[in-house]
């Protein structure tokens, strides 16, 4: 649940970054940002599988990298990357607790 929330908020943040970038960026930078926002919005549906978590982790890199277009994305991308790592850690702890409580 936390991982899905992080990815959706990243998609919205990317949308706002696109609004900032509209006046000063090239078309290809806007297209790449738009594709990133859409992929971030679609990825929570894959989080039931391990591949979804891997894709979500890979998407953290271009999110931070979009700071080359919108400088504030360096900071926001870093914050979201930290939240993503926290979601992974909390998710693993929750799975371990559920495994201990579930009778064999």
Report the strand count.
0
Q: Give the % helix.
A: over 70%
Shape: elongated
What's the helix count?
4
Largest sheet: none
- Average pLDDT, all residues: 91
* Class from helix and strand fractions: mainly alpha
User: C-alpha Rg, in Å?
Assistant: 16 Å
Total domains, how many? 1
- Low-confidence runs of at least 5 consecutive residues: none
Order of helices and strands: HHHH
Give the percentage of residues in beta strands. Answer: under 5%
Determine the N-to-C terminus distance.
25 Å
What report would you give on this structure?
The structure is a single chain. It is built from four helices and no strands. With about 100 residues, it is mostly helical. The protein has one domain (about 1-100).
Highlighted features:
104 residues; mainly alpha; 4 helices; 79% helix
In short:
It contains four helices and no strands.
Topology overview:
Layout: H1 2-21, H2 27-42, H3 50-65, H4 72-101
